[in-house]
Amino acid sequence: MGLVEGKAGIVTGAAGGIGRASAILYAEEGASVIVSDLEACREKAEETVAMITAAGGTAVFVAADVAKAADAELLVTECVRHFGKLDFAFNNAGILAVGFTSEVEEDEFDRIMEVDVKGVWLCMKYQLKQMMKNGGGTIVNTSSEGGLVGTPQAGPYVAAKHAVIGLTKTAAGEYANMNIRVNSIAPGTIATPMVLSLPKEAQDMLVAPQPLNRLGDPREVAQGVVWLSSDRTSFITGITLSIDGGATSNAQSYDPANSPRSLG
């Protein structure tokens, strides 16, 4: 029996990276999955579906912009239509803009808030309504290491990811007595297409705070996501699980000289 055997749910931002890895792992662990991303990402999202079905799993692509209420509701409707229920959701879709706080354009700020905060809220809104009908369920929201600490040149993103944690904690308390658990994850620097497209020096700067001193693998994040969606975490709600190579546990950037190994 898989961790989520017989369950059905939604993964947003599933055309690649953490979303794709999580959709695949949900399916490997026995779940049926709505794979969602923007219409513009259809080809990559359908690749995710093909990877799942080729391995014997069950998945369906549904295009959606999570910042639109009708699309957020459609995801729930389609999950119930295809699979008869909604047991879990992984609200992972998000965007990033880079720049010092005084240099970010207003439209960039607004779009990040629209997708990264409003999008998570809208998805939860309709997921919670269905889960109350189901008699329970689990939701995992993607925050970030930047939802726990400040990150230079990412002010709006950091603000949005802090907000995701606030939404998660609040919903966890509101719906706990309805057998609905709501948690979030805070990934560090992960080997996603966005990170891998950066120059080597930028990648090194992002990895520096992580004592494990390497990029995380999307599947390593997916393991935490699926675990939080499983019955093995039945007494866990309202938490933010850091999956960041130790970054938020340390005040100093990684330095080999600080390792006992270097002291011989």
CATH top level?
A: Alpha Beta
- Order of adjacent strands in the largest pleated sheet: 3-2-1-4-5-6-7
Helix and strand sequence: EHEHEHEHEHEHHHE
Instruction: Please identify which CATH superfamily we are dealing with.
Output: NAD(P)-binding Rossmann-like Domain
- Structural class, from helix and strand content? alpha/beta
Strand count, sense and barrel status of the largest sheet are: 7 strands, parallel
Could you estimate the helical fraction of the residues in percent? 40-55%
Tell how many strands the DSSP assignment holds: 7
β content, as a range?
5-15%
Radius of gyration: 18 Å
Tell the overall outline. globular
Integer average pLDDT: 95
- End-to-end separation: 46 Å
CATH architecture: 3-Layer(aba) Sandwich
Overview of this protein structure:
The chain is α/β, with parallel strands linked by helices and 264 residues long. It has a single domain (8-243), classed as NAD(P)-binding Rossmann-like Domain (Rossmann fold). 43% of the residues lie in helices and 14% in strands. The protein is built from 8 helices and 7 strands, in the order βαβαβαβαβαβαααβ. The chain has a 7-stranded parallel β-sheet, sandwiched between helices. The model has no long low-confidence stretch (mean pLDDT 95).
